[in-house]
UniProtKB/TrEMBL annotation:
Keywords: Lyase. The keyword Lyase applies. It catalyses: (4aS,6R)-4a-hydroxy-L-erythro-5,6,7,8-tetrahydrobiopterin = (6R)-L-erythro-6,7-dihydrobiopterin + H2O. One of its GO terms (biological process) is tetrahydrobiopterin biosynthetic process. Gene3D superfamilies: Transcriptional coactivator/pterin dehydratase. It comes from Halococcus morrhuae DSM 1307. Its EC number is 4.2.1.96. This is 4a-hydroxytetrahydrobiopterin dehydratase.
Length: 91
């Protein structure tokens, strides 16, 4: 079981563009075209499945929002920070 990060640790370690909301870190990626966002969401889903750590992904017309938390631990862990970095790299 992973340790839940403190608010300060989350704020210090979350990648640029990610922010802390409750027991999650969230980021919204913007796209010029709807299908570009869908393609990114699909790639994010593949990454999540490989890592067996599944975020909430919301697809809108010109943006994709991703929320990460470790449900079993009840908050943000190192794995969430690492997943955020993977998603940023995929963008």
């Amino acid at each position: 079981m992973a340790d839940v990060l403190s608010d300060e640790e989350i704020d210090d370690r979350a990648p640029e563009g990610w922010h802390h909301e409750g027991d999650e870190i969230v980021r919204t990626y913007e796209f010029d075209e709807y299908l570009d966002g869908v393609e990114f969401a699909s790639e994010a889903a593949e990454i999540a499945d490989e890592e067996f750590h599944h975020p909430e992904i919301t697809i809108r017309y010109d943006e994709v929002a991703i929320a990460l938390t470790s449900h079993e631990e009840g908050g943000v862990t190192d794995q969430d920070i690492q997943m955020a970095e993977h998603f940023d790299d995929a963008r």
